[in-house]
Amino acid sequence: MSMSGPLARADIELVLCQAGGHRCALEAAWVRGAGSAQAADAVTLEECLGLSAEPGIAAASERQVLMLRGPAGDWRLNVAGPVELGRLAVERIFPLPPLLAARPAVPALCALALLPELGSAPAGDVLLLLLDVRALLPPSKDAGAMSELIRTPR
Amino acid sequence: MTGLSLTDILAERHASAVSGTDIVDVNEPSILLVVFRLGEQHFAFPGKRIGEILAAPRVYRVPGAPPALEGVISVRGAIDSVLCLHTLLQLPTAQADERPTRHGAVLLTRGQGLTSGLRVDEVIDLLELPESALREAPDTLPESLRPFVRHLIDLGQQGVAVLDLDRLLGAYTEQVG
C-alpha cells in the first residue's frame, strides 16, 4: 500500500518488546528508559493486556523494566525481551481493521504492522502489535525510584 | 454392443434438449452465488458481496480477539480481519474441530465501506441462477442459523443456505458471535 503526502517518507521511533509470545511496540516518546527487571512491584505487560506469559519465551528471554511517562507521573512496566529501539516507516503502520476495532478486547492495541521475520525459512512476516501507552493501566502505587534506570542503547 | 446407432443417440439427445425442462428464460433476473462448505453443510453468499477468494492465506492471531475473529491477513500490503464463519454461525463443535485451518479459503467481502475476510472450509462453485430458484428459508432451520439464512437453493441433492452478510457482520459487532 503506497502513501502520499508529508507522511509518505516519515517514520516513528518505537520500543519493541514481547508479551505472551506476541511482538509488541510502544511509542518511544513515552519511554524514559529501561533497566533490568529487579523490581518485583512492576506490573507486567502481560497483565496489562490480559495475556498469560508464555513460559518458554519468558525463560529464554531476559525481562526488563521500562520506565514510562504517565499523566500521574512515571511508572514501571515489566516486559519480556529482547527490548530494542527501532524505527518503523509510517507506511507500514495500519489502523485496526473495522471488525477488530469494533470489539477491542485489548484496549491499548491501537495499530498493527507486519515486519520481516529474521532468520525464518522460508522468510515470513511477524505481526507487530502497536500499543498506546496512555491506554495501558499503570499500577496505582507510585513508580518510586529506579536507580538502575538506563537509557536504551541505540 | 448396445445396438444403438449414432443417429439414435443424437435423436435422443435432441429430443431431451428441446423437451423444455432445461430451458432458461434469459430475460429472468439472475443472481450470482459463491457456494462454499462449512463442515458437511453448504452455504452461499451473493457474489456481488465477495470481491476475492484467497486460497489459504497466512492468518496472524491477535491476542484478546473474540472467538469469531480468527485473526488478520495481509492483502496486497493492507491488513484485513478474518472472521470464522464456523464460530459465527455456531455450527456444531465436532465440525469446528475437524475444519481445516491451513487448507480452507478466505472470502474477501466488499461493499458498504467494510472489508473483511470470511474463513470457509472449501469453495465449491460459482453459480449463476435465476432468482426464481431461490426458496424462502424454512422454519425448520436450526435456531442459530435462522437469523442469517435468507434463502435456500437446491444444488443436486444438496440444499444450500444463502446467507445474509450484513446480518452476520451486524451480529458480530453486536457481540453475538
In short:
With 154 residues, chain A is mainly β.
Protein model, in words:
The complex is a heterodimer of chains A (154) and B (177). Chain A has three helices and nine strands; from the N terminus they run E-E-E-E-H-H-E-E-E-H-E-E. Chain A has 154 residues and is mostly beta strands. Chain A is globular and about 35 Å long. The C terminus of chain A is likely disordered. Chain B is α+β, with helices and mostly antiparallel strands and 177 residues long. A six-stranded mixed sheet of chain B has the order 8-1-2-11-10-9, with no helix packed on it. Chain B has a five-stranded mixed sheet with strand order 3-6-7-5-4. The interface between A and B is medium-sized, with 25 and 25 residues.
Low-confidence stretches of chain B: none
Mean pLDDT of chain B: 84
Biggest sheet architecture of chain A: 9 strands, mixed
Low-confidence stretches of chain A: 141-154
Kindly report the average pLDDT value of chain A.
Answer: 78
- Side by side, the strands of the main sheet of chain B go 8-1-2-11-10-9
Tell me the structural class of chain A.
mainly beta
Which chain pair has the greatest contact?
A: A-B, 25 and 25 residues
Strand content of chain A: 35-45%
Overall spatial form of chain B: elongated
Strand-pairing-aware structural class of chain B:
alpha+beta
Measured as a percent range, the helix fraction of chain B is 10-25%
Number of beta-strand segments of chain A: 9
